[in-house]
Amino acid sequence: MTRVSALSAATLLVLLIVPLVAWAQGAPFTITLATKVAILAMAGVGLNIALGIGGLVSLGHAAFFGIGGYAMGILASHSQSFTPLMEVPFLIEGTKSMPVIWLTAVLAGAMAAWAIGALSLRTSGVYFIMVTLAFGQMFFYFAISWPAYGGEDGLSIYVRNSFPGLNTLDPIQFFGIVYAILLIVLYLAHRIERSAFGLALDAARQSEARVRSVGIEPYRVRLLAFVISGSVTALAGALFADLNRFVSPSMFSWQTSGEIMIFVILGGVGRLIGPVIGAGVFILLEHFLGGVSEYWLIYVGAILLGTVVFAPGGIVGLLAGRRGQHG
Amino acid sequence: MSALLLAEQILNGLQFGVMLFLMAAGLTLIFGVMGLINLAHGSLYMIGAFAAAGVAAATGSFMLALMASLAAAAAAGAIIEVVVIRRLYARDHLDQVLATFALILILSEATRWAFGSFPLYLDVPDALSGPVVLPGGIEYPAYRLALIGIGLVVAVGLFLLIARTRIGMQIRAGEADREMIAALGVDIGRLYTLVFALGAALAGGAGALVGAIQSVQVGMGEPVLILAFVVIVIGGIGSVKGALVGAILVGLTDTLGRTLLPVLFGAFLDPSQATAVGSALASMSIYILMAIVLVLRPTGLFRVA
Q: How many C-beta atoms surround the C-beta of residue B13 within 10 A?
C-alpha cells in the first residue's frame, strides 16, 4: 500500500468512526458536522474532476451546487404545498423522494454544466476563470430576482426528504446515506482518472497539441469532464440542501465557488482524497476558530495564503510527498 | 416610457459604465503587464471607499476624502504587491486565484474588524448635491453627471499616459516582452509595483466615488470585480480601449435592461408577472451579452495580440 492510499483509507475511516462514536455517545451535532464534511467533500470531488485531472480552473462551481440545492428545494416545496410543478403539456408533481431528487439534481447540473462549459471552454487560462466566475454570478442574481421560489429569502423545507427503508430524520442514518454516496462518487472519480477518457483529459492539460495530433479533440474531452464535474457537484448541492432543509441564493454565491476550490487545494489538487481532507480541515477550522473569533476567516485566509505560497502540494503533498506539478 | 426617462436611464448607464471602466482598466493593465489575475482588486475598491468615508467623517471635506481614497488604495496596492503578489508572477493562474482569494478573506475581515459590519455613508459634496437641467429639459443629479465627466477625463488621461509618456512606453513594452525590457535596464520590479499601485488607485477612487451614491460596506467590491471581469472578457484582455468600450456596453445593457425589459414584457403579460420575468431576465442580460461575445469573438472585441 502506498502512502497516498494509506492516507486515503485512514481519512475515510476517521470520517466513518467519528460520527459512529458520536452516535454511541448521543452527540447528534458532531454527526451533523461529519455529514457536512462528507457533502462538501463530494462537491470538491466533483470540482477535482475538472480541476485536478483536466486543469480547468472553474470559479463557477457554485452554479452547480446551487442548482442541485434548488432541484431539491423546488421539488420538495411543491410536494409540501401539494401544488404540481407544471400541468401543461404534461403533469409534473413535486416529490419528497431522495432518489428522484438526486436524479433531477444530477441531470439539471449536467445540463447547466454543458451550457456553461460549451461557452467557457471556447476560452482558456485566465479567461476561463473569469467566464466561469461570471456565469456563476449570473445564477446568483437570477435566484435573487426570481420571486417564485423565495427570491432573496430562499426556501425552507420542513421535513427532510425520504429514502425507502430508512428514517432520514435520524442523523446517523442520513450520514450513512451521504457517506455511501461519497464512497460511490470517489470510486467513480478513481475509475475516471484511470480510464482512457481520464488519461486523455490529463494529457490535454499537459500538452494540447499532442492530444490533438493523436486524433482526440481536447474541447470535447474537456466538455465531458466539465459535465461530469458539474453533475457531481449538483448532487452534493441537493444533499447539502437536504441537510439544512433550506436553500437560498447564497449557495450560488462566488464565496461558495471559492470555498469548494479551497477544499480541493487545501487537500491537494488532483489527489482523489484531497477534497475530503480539505473539507474536513475547513469545517474543523470553522468550528473551532469560529468559537475563538468572529473574524475567523482571517485565519483561513492566512492558512490558504501560506499553503499556496509555501506548500503548493496541499496537505496530501505534505504528508505523502510531492508528485508531478499540476499546471 | 417617455423619452425623458429613457435619456435619464442612458445617462445612468453611462455613469455605471465609466465607474466600471475605472475598475476594469486597472485589472486589464495588471494582467497585460504582469500576467496576473487579481481577485483582490475588489478589496482595493472597498479600501478606497472606507478610507474616503473615514476621512469625510473626520474632516467633512469630500475632496480630502477622495484624495485619501486614492492614497490609501495605492499604498495598500503597493504593500500587497511587495509582500504577496510579487511571489505569484511565476506561478500558474490557479495559485494566483487562490492567493488573491485568500487576500480577499483577510482584507474583508480586517475591514470588518476595524469598521464594524454596519454600512457607512459618504455624503455627496454640497456643490454637487442638486440636479442640473440638461438641454432638452432633462433634470439630472449633478453628482452623477460629474462622475461621468471624471470617468471620461481619467480615461483620456490613461490613454495619454500609456501612449505619450516614458512610463507608458515601459508599460507597453512590458506587455510585449517582459524579459527584454528588463535586459534593457528598466527596473522591472519597480515598474510592476507602480502599475499595481496605479490600478489600485483607480479602483480605490472608483470605490469612493460610487460609495457616495451607494453605501460603504464590507463585500461591496466583489460584485463590481465580477462585473469588471465581464467587461474584460467582452473588451479583450490587456486592452484599455476594450475596457472602456466593454464597460460602457455593460453599463448601458444592465441599466437599460432593468428599465426596458419589464415594460417590454408588460405588453403581453399582466403587470406583476411582467415585473418578475422582466427583472429576472434583466439580471442576466450582461451575462447573455458576454455569452454572445464569447460565441462571436472568444478573445474579446479588442484583444491585444
A: 22
Asked if B98 and A261 come within 8 Å (Cβ–Cβ), the reply is yes
Q: CB-based contact (8 Å) between B115 and chain A?
A: no
The average pLDDT across A202-230 equals 93
- CA dist B230 and B254 (Å) reads 12
Nearest beta carbon to residue A312 from set B95, B105, B110: B95
Determine the distance in angstroms separating the CA of A40 from the nearest CA of chain B, rounded to an integer. Answer: 18
Alpha-carbon gap, residue B244 to A152, rounded angstroms: 32
Q: What are phi and psi of A247, to 5 degrees?
A: -125, 145
- pLDDT at residue A258, as a whole number: 93
Match 469545517 to its residue by C-alpha cell.
Answer: A283
State CA B46 to chain mean position distance.
11
Reported as a single tens digit per residue, the pLDDT across A51-70 is 989 999 999 999 999 999 99
Nearest residue in chain B measured CA to CA from A301: B102
CB within 8 Å: A126 and B103 = no
Q: What is the pLDDT of residue B304?
A: 57
Q: Cα separations (Å) of B178 from A124, B25, B32, B181, B183? A: 22, 20, 11, 6, 9
Question: What band does B174 get if pLDDT is binned at 50, 70 and 90?
Answer: confident
**Residues of A with Cβ-Cβ distance to B283 under 8 angstroms:** 138, 141-142, 144-145
| ipTM for the assembly | 0.90
3-state secondary structure of B199: helix
- The pLDDT tens digits for A80-129 are 888 887 777 777 888 889 999 999 999 999 999 999 999 999 988 888 99
Confidence of residue A308 (pLDDT cuts 50, 70, 90): confident
Residue A89: asked if its preceding bond is cis (omega within 30°), the reply is yes
Residue A271 has pLDDT above 90, yes or no: no
Q: What is the mean pLDDT of chain B?
A: 90
Domains defined for chain B, CATH in brackets:
8-120+133-296 (1.10.3470)
Nearest chain B residue to A137, by CA:
B226
Q: Does A118 touch chain B (CB under 8 A)?
A: no
A137 inside 8 A of chain B by CB: yes
Note whether A222 and A239 are within 8 A (CB).
no
Give chain A's domains with CATH numbers: 3-320 (1.10.3470)
- Spell out which residues of chain B touch residue A256, defining contact as CB-CB under 8 Å: none
Closest Cα in chain B, distance from residue A119 (Å): 7
Cα distances (Å, whole numbers) of residue A268 to A109, A206, A230, A246, A320 = 25, 18, 20, 30, 10
Averaged pLDDT, B237-243? 88
**H or E element at residue B138:** strand B138-141
Q: At residue A295, what is the residue type?
A: Y
Assess B301–A contact: CB distance below 8 Å, yes or no: no
